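the four lines:
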Amino acid sequence: MAARMTRQRTAVVETLDELADFRSAQQLHEALRARGESVGLATVYRALQALADASEVDVLRAEDGESLYRRCARSEHHHHLVCRFCGRTVEIDGPTVEAWASKVAAAQGFDDIEHTIELWGTCADCRAAAAK
Amino acid sequence: MAARMTRQRTAVVETLDELADFRSAQQLHEALRARGESVGLATVYRALQALADASEVDVLRAEDGESLYRRCARSEHHHHLVCRFCGRTVEIDGPTVEAWASKVAAAQGFDDIEHTIELWGTCADCRAAAAK
DNA sequence: ATGCGTGCAAACGATTTGCAGCCGG
DNA sequence: CCGGCTGCAAATCGTTTGCACGCAT
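prediction for all of em together
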């Protein structure tokens, strides 16, 4: 069950921590290469999937369908406010929303409720950069 | 600007209305074939995209990344509670959630806020079918 | 007529997988 | 030593696009 600790796995986790914000597997792959710790793209995907299964990283889908990964501070359920340009992320939670979601769903006779609640926007920095 | 009315576009819209719930382009393509009104898959995609651009259909991403389309009753902003098995859909709106979303985002200095709020569950029928 | 719409097949881009060799425990 | 891990390339899969032809306006 415990994941074997290889050079590439370590590198993936470390780089993920460094980047801090949501990144795609490809961006991560490139960051690894730049960092000198080159790792095969397939391996990056496998590592990320393993981490996701172990709830060590959060995964979410960008508007274009690409998967983005991030090591979040809190492991409990929460949501995100993400900059669609630079990936800058703010963790948020909405107790109100949680309650609302399950109530609505239950009222319609639905089970195994799961909700997708993500906020996308343009962060202050990117707005400034774009304005220039 | 006005979309040209062809046999295939009419067929796509009609079939979409018939299906009522969220369907993938491929499911729709198959439904068209079954209906006798065969339409090229590429055309189905093009028609759906045009409809989406014109806000005639709602689009959302399934958990596996596939795009699902649906002709919604209301054209105003709203969200959905979708059965992950049969696609059965219930339109919902959460005035509370809307307000919460923009408030949180603005507080972090984010602009052009957009939110993804979808509820996924198993509808009563599918739960019964699975239990059998 | 005129040019948007269509079909088909090739092109795409992200992700997955088969397989032979490697290396961590 | 052994089985999980890796790399590479080939395979998937949904979706997009190039191109020659047809049809709605």
